[in-house]
Write a structure and sequence with these properties.
Strands 34, 35, 36, 37, 38, 39, 40 and 41 form an 8-stranded mixed sheet that branches. This protein is globular. It is mainly beta. The chain folds into 5 domains: 196 residues, no CATH class; 78 residues, OB fold (Dihydrolipoamide Acetyltransferase, E2P) (Beta Barrel); 89 residues, OB fold (Dihydrolipoamide Acetyltransferase, E2P); 87 residues, no CATH class; 109 residues, no CATH class. The chain contains 2 helices and 41 strands.
Length: 584
């Protein structure tokens, strides 16, 4: 990846070691009910942000869960093979919002294992860099050890489906994870990561990607629609729902809906798992629904505009795989909000607080203005984050360095229900007042490494850090093994350089974990200079590490995390090791 601080990771391998394409876990809080009863399960898919890709489009085929008691598998969702849109997902578009993959009725019980299947054929995938350069499918290598495009993983803790209640299973793709997309010798190695993502403290803060489709039923309190994916979703409405008649451009109402009406819905989830429609655009023909209400990721910020990457909802034939840039102009009348209810101010002065990767929702002052002259009436920031190298930390705030060119000091949040917390692999959550955080930052920097992190932000008259996740750090390239790995020592010695002074070599003892929740992932990449062919094997069994990780390797890529020992010192444990072998 072009930006080295992209190599952060959240909770991907906290439940188990990598065994193939993805990992996941999920949770719910209800006891098991009678064996013949059924409950509802919402399967939600999200993605952590990446600035390096415009599209990473894959085709999901099915999701199944295993009952912990009967050890039988229950099919939760299967993509309709007759509907090419059913399983097609652009993972980049899910940054900051959730996609409802399905809302299914399944037998009650405790489910402790997940099986997810994708189409592993590279020709079914679309990879487009942020430079708008598309990757030739012939240059995409998909990591698929079982040759079935599927992975089975334990759900820890297990998820309980209860009669008459709705459980939520939320999984998060990790495009920024160091193993998700690796660019090696002209080949893109795709090994997508998935993790369980905890629901927000207030589930009503969870934002959903807009759904487009056709109304199938209308009641006094809401409506049901069939999405373009073929899923049936029911939305509740109330006096706070905002309606727009897209055929007239005027304000609408629930009375404007009828069976067959096309709808575009922005929604939230209630505490009971039901969906609430915040905004509804409707039209007699679904193909005429507006593309002039952008919701998406900020890709550029100017002195009086932002550029937003959004789905093209102009026609159903393009809805699920066409994304375009929309220029949104700002003037003195533009009103800004955070999470729809927290005021941020008005006008162009707020642009200084907006950054690439934020997700926004825009309402134009006059949607009928020429495409190039549309000015925002309101801009709501759905989600905001900063990421980069932490250069300093205290008990009150920390400083981010962005590519060592831009530095921002971010206070810890003290907002009720949004107070600051942080996490590093191998250490528990800690509050901002704990000395462990500043101590960890100091130890990593003293070792010549960098502290990469991603902060979720909350607006409190300025951006404050609600949570911070520190990532495994990639040792600088080139890195070579100078003393090979041995199972007895559980470590190897790597010679590399100091991030702050690339002229100075650095020797690092790297420990590898063969077992445990944070088992090291080791992969092999072989390049044949004669045939010009690249072969990959991920993961490599721990019994073979001593044969692979030797000084004969051309180079290694190593991501490490600090482990604080009982005596207060730090050791460096490998999160991921990629071994490069050159064959003549």
């Amino acid at each position: 990846m072009r930006r080295t601080f992209r190599f952060w990771s959240l909770f991907v391998l906290a439940a188990a070691g990598l065994a193939g394409l993805w990992l996941a876990s999920a949770c719910s809080l209800s006891p098991e009910a009678t064996s013949n009863a059924t409950g509802r399960l919402n399967v939600l898919v999200t993605d952590s942000p990446t600035d390096d890709w415009e599209q990473v489009t894959v085709v999901l085929k099915s999701i199944s869960l295993r009952n912990a008691s009967t050890r039988t598998w229950v099919e939760v969702w299967t993509a309709d093979p007759a509907n090419p849109l059913a399983g097609t997902v652009n993972l980049v578009d899910l940054s900051g919002v959730a996609e409802i993959l399905t809302s299914a009725t399944i037998p009650v019980g405790t489910y402790n294992r997940l099986k997810l299947t994708i189409d592993a054929d590279p020709t079914t995938m679309t990879l487009v860099r942020d430079t708008e350069e598309a990757v030739d499918p012939a240059n995409i290598v998909v990591v698929d050890p079982g040759k079935k495009g599927e992975i089975s993983v334990d759900l820890t803790p297990a998820i309980d489906v209860v009669e008459g209640e709705t459980a939520n299973l939320q999984v998060d793709f990790e495009l920024a994870h160091p193993l998700s997309i690796v660019d090696e010798l002209g080949k893109i190695i795709l090994n997508l990561q998935l993790r369980h993502k905890a629901l927000p403290y207030d589930i009503r803060d969870l934002q959903f990607a807009r759904n487009i489709g056709t109304v199938t039923a209308v009641t006094d309190t809401g409506f049901t629609m069939d999405t373009l994916r073929g899923e049936s979703l029911t939305y509740g409405v109330d006096e706070n729902t905002i309606w727009v008649d897209a055929d007239t451009g005027e304000a609408g109402s629930l009375a404007g809906l009828a069976e067959g009406t096309g709808v575009l819905v922005a929604s939230n989830m209630n505490s009971d798992g039901s969906l609430f429609a915040r905004r509804v655009w409707y039209a007699a023909d679904v193909d005429t629904l507006p593309s002039y209400t952008p919701e998406g990721l900020v890709r550029r910020v100017g002195s009086n505009y932002i550029k937003v990457l959004q789905k093209n909802t102009g026609t159903t034939s393009h809805h699920c795989w066409e994304w375009n840039y929309v220029t949104v102009y700002v003037n003195s009348a533009t009103q800004w909000t955070f999470h729809e209810t927290v005021p941020m101010g008005s006008g162009t002065s707020v642009l200084q607080y907006i950054a690439r990767g934020f997700r926004v929702d825009v309402e134009f002052q006059n949607p009928n203005d020429h495409y190039y002259n549309r000015v925002a009436k309101t801009i709501n920031v759905h989600s905001a984050h900063y990421e980069g190298a932490v250069t300093a930390a205290s008990g009150a705030d920390f400083t981010f360095g962005f590519d060592y060119r831009r530095h921002l000091t971010v206070p810890y949040s003290t907002v009720q229900d949004h107070s600051f917390s942080w996490w590093y692999f191998g250490q528990p959550f800690a509050s901002s007042t704990s000395a462990d955080f500043p101590d960890t930052v100091a130890a990593v920097r003293n070792a010549g490494l960098r502290v990469f992190g991603r902060a979720e932000l909350y607006w409190a008259n300025q951006w404050v850090a609600e949570s911070l996740v520190l990532a495994p750090d990639r040792l600088p390239d080139p890195a070579v093994v100078t003393t090979g790995y041995t199972a007895l020592a559980g470590s190897m010695i790597v010679t590399t350089f100091d991030w702050d002074d690339l002229t100075r070599s650095k020797v690092t003892t790297v420990f590898l974990d063969a077992t445990g929740d944070l088992q090291t992932v080791v992969g092999s990449i072989k390049w044949n200079t004669t045939t010009q062919l690249l072969s990959t094997t991920i993961p490599i069994d721990s019994s073979l590490w001593d044969m692979l990780l030797t000084p004969s390797l051309a180079a290694v890529r190593v991501w490490v995390r600090p482990m604080k020992e009982e005596d207060g010192t730090f050791t460096w444990h490998a999160y991921t090791v990629l071994a490069l072998t050159v064959v003549n």
